[in-house]
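Appendix B: complex inputs.
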Amino acid sequence: MRQGESEKSSRYSVRSAEEASAFLSRATFGATEESIRELQRVGDYRQWIRREFKKKPSYHLEWVLNHAKGVDGTEDLKNDPEGWQRYSDALGTMQRDAWWDIVVRHADQLRQRVAFALSEILVVSRNGPLLNFPDARLSYYDILVRYAFDNFKTLLRAVTYHPAMGKYLSYLGNAKADPRSDRHPDENYAREVMQLFTIGLYQLNPDGSRKLRRGNPIPTYTQQDIREMARVFTGLSDDNGEFPAEAAFSDFHSRTSAMVPFDEYHDRGEKRILHGKKIIPAGGDTVTDINTALHHLFMHPNVGPFLARRLIQRLVTSNPSPGYIARVAGAFDDNGKGVRGDLKAVIEAILLDKEALRGRHDPKIFGKFREPLLYPAHLFRAFHAKNGIHTLRQGEERVYRYRSFNFNGTGMTRQEGPLEALTVFNYFTPDDGPYSLKKKGLVAPELELYDKQGIDDVIMGLVTENSYVYRLFHITARLQLQREIALIARKRYRRLIDRLDLILTGSRLDPRTKQAALHYIKRHIRDKRMTHEKMARLVIGLIMTSPDYAFQR
Amino acid sequence: MNPNKKRRDFLKQSVAGSLGIALSTLPSNATETVPYSTSDSGYKALVCVLLEGGADTFNMLIPRQRKSYRKYRRLRGELAVARETLLPIDTEYGFRGNMGEMQRLYREKKLAVVANVGTLVEPVTPRQVREGSKKIPFELFAHNTQRNQWMFADATGNTHNGWGARAADRLYATSDPARSYCAINTADINTLLFSGGRKDPLHFTEPSISPDTMRRYGFGPESGGAAFGRVYQHLYALQQSNRNPLQATMARQRIHELNLPVKLEGLFDGVRDFDGFTTGVHEVGKPLGSQLELVAQTLSVKDRFPARPRRQIFFVDHHNWDTHDSDNEHQAGYLSDSLGAFQKAMEELEMEEEVTLLTLSDFGRSLTPNGAGTDHGWGTFAFVMGGAVNGGNIYGKMPRIQRNSPDAWYDRLVPALSMESYLATLLAWMGLSEDELDLVLPNLRNFPTRNLGFMRG
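Resulting structure:
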């Protein structure tokens, strides 16, 4: 018994700094010297995760409200909810500032990393009808933060009732069919909540593979089911007292509070969903019917493997083995205490799986490409970027002032930003990959954002604090490189490279990459105008723009 | 270096080239392609404009006769476009009021309409769809599957590379270096249209080939300059043979991108600028005008490409057509203006006859509204523009804009024409033979019409 206990605890013990660093690349926005040391001190991955579960969540809307201090006569945003509309352009930028500050500097790393992953599954976006409503987007992101460690059913419900989703997928103000006209209820959410948020297109085995009937995949629903489901999502609007969508989003409260039922617009007829097999009986009101439909989706056997594959891909590896998916799906189905949908159990299963932690399924394909946003986040974290005072403008007018990195240009992160996908299909789908890989049955979703030099030019601009970039975009982030500079000054080049290798890649650099970096330092350290600081920056840049770094494993 | 060795390698390569050494990679019933057979040696280009999200074309071209308009109005309710604002193209139909450029082009016979085209496996009627007696495309109405079927030109799910890539592979002999410059993406995202070809597509996002941003942010003097750049490139070269196929693939892609500036150095020197393209208002993603302007600019320097490609296919992506909660008035007007500007640019370049633009979309939309917009449909109208187009005509039978009509399944149009017939008409103009069309469009044989007749010559 005792022996079993100790075996169990050693299963998750932290064996080395390298392994700890690699773990942190999956569970946080990038390892740092301090976070590696802290994880080693805790000594056990599961313990570390459970500590993260208890940390106080950082909310993005609150960040903006607390930081947007008025200048030149503007009221503080906190005291002036009208500011959200008057300065919606500027506050849209501030949403990015909040994201960068929280993911880089705040302690609740696992929660934020999972919330970001969820934001790429349960997608709403700045691109589209939410363009001018940063408060709605921030409030939506906070739903993901709030319920990241809750039950998926609670999360799905909160997402479904959030006005940002209601507006983005156009079921806010969606009325039942009018018998006098040919109008039908909006099918948008009815379709996407099934295809993209819960069960997907085809029936799945627990290991994520498709079930087959006579060699063909079996659809999870038909167009008739969509029509029925569209009738379910009728009767919701935001909490401003009026039903029609045109009247919606009139104030801060209605944009940031759960949608409410207007039962006179709800279709109370019987609906049959999921191949007509699940019946939502006639007579139900808006909330009863929607909750019943969400319950049926939540109970569908696809949800476990569907969500497992997506979350594993976002955090650990693009091509998980069927066994890995099945184990995580199993944790979704039952957290060990008979509870279905416990996201804590799912997250533990993902991060603590033997495939993620050590006995890798197939080291030849294990891992994933870092998406562009993760690069600057890790850079700022690993080198303790300091922020500066930034004045936010709308047009020529100075409106708010606060501390931030002011690194917020989506254009600079290759079209990727928090909640800024072009469509509800996210920046990439779970099945994306170059044809040559797909032929081998492999995917590499993040490569969709790796055109040209990927984000390497931006990283070089940030690492070197390139004067052109910094002046043009008024970036205030300043890296703290004392340790790296000291190692250069003492000619401890190998030591420097080992240190960077550990923090940035979990010591997974190809030895030839390290050799090339060493060679580069020795060859150029005495160049005209070269300084210790500049060399430190160039070596960091060389590693972070290397193909070795691009692939998180 | 031993000069004799170099010469031997060169000989080996050219012998291989002249024998068509890659025959084994072709399907067994194929022979080495002769590029755009002898009679047809001029330059030709296709510009594929994807209306991403599923365009509500039924609110772009609208019946205007009193009786048919009344039916349209009753069906579409609050989404219906006012009759008096329509811009007539004939006695029966008109473009919506802000599509003056497309109306003009239609009247000048430079624009054709293809009626009710879509993804099909075999010809099917609404009644057969209801009965389930014929094969229909898998996963109708889902954005990604339907768009992919259009990009793959196969609604059975058995093809996984783009028709643009397959056509490009057929348009050039295996050994022809010009193949590398055939497929060009000017959108802000990757496209499946060109995936899986012998060569990767070129991807320009601005009329400049040198790694400008890398010089500015990355490899400029502040950032280590050329010496740094050499180490950077060296590291990618090393990983091309990584045992992990993901890492190797990415490294190869990067090396391909890094080598482009070398091969295409100076391509855009002397590029033409054009008036009339606009960036729109609140566009999602890269504006259509900017993309079409880049296509026009690329066409203005077409003779500077290495090996002088004589067939090119461009991909352009216009976002924001998934209008569940709105009419598409803005998108339609912007499309019309952008197409007008593009045709003017072709006139300036005197390339009207050589360049044909076509529209593609995920699907059409529901005929009936959902209260604020429309939902995912199936059959749609498509538009073809250019000097080689038999314009001023509608090809195919215009569908009734009615629920459960002989053209509709509930309120979704069942396509009367296949995407294969539509694309075959264009690819035949590009110079593919009948045999080649069957290879590029695997289901073309299933349909009675191989050429819809909207292209001249």
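The two ends of chain B are 52 Å apart (CA to CA).
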